[in-house]
Design brief:
The chain has helices at 3-7, 12-22, 74-81, 88-92, 96-99, 104-109, 116-129, and strands at 41-42, 47-49, 63-66, 69-72. The protein is of the alpha+beta class. A 4-stranded antiparallel β-sheet has the order 1-2-3-4, with no helix packed on it.
């Protein structure tokens, strides 16, 4: 088992534990983070980015701002907003609505899956170990 799953479970064990404690189902989601919906990072030079991971990378600038004026780059905006579950593996995956394809910025670096099945197994065990008695 990859030690990374024990250390980094993306908050999944807490979500599972909370669902168990509150007697409610896990919430599904179609996006991983706000970079795919409504999140923006404004840098001091006047540029707008979807997330901290891509600040200062021209190819990921959503737009620029100066005073009251904002100029959007719709092509880049669409690339970030429409990357919801686009990976072929994600479309077939039974865990797709738990991980939502993972971090888009991480996918830019290496197009690897979070291996949600392993993550869930580890997180469920962790959640049950920390259950209220």
């Amino acid at each position: 088992m990859d030690l990374g799953y024990i250390c980094q479970d993306y908050g999944l064990s807490n979500k599972i534990s909370s669902a168990i404690n509150n007697g409610k189902p896990l919430l599904f989601r179609s996006t991983y983070c706000n970079s795919q919906t409504k999140g923006f990072v404004l840098d001091p030079l006047g540029y707008i980015y979807p997330c901290w991971e891509v600040v200062n990378r021209k190819e990921h600038r959503l737009g620029c701002y100066k005073g009251d004026e904002i100029i959007w780059n719709n092509e880049i905006m669409d690339m970030w907003r429409k990357c919801i579950l686009l990976e072929k593996d994600c479309i077939k995956c039974k865990y797709a609505l738990l991980c939502s394809g993972g971090c888009p910025a991480a996918r830019l670096k290496s197009n690897r899956c979070l291996r949600m099945e392993d993550l869930i197994r580890t997180s469920v065990n962790k959640a049950f170990k920390t259950q209220k008695k």
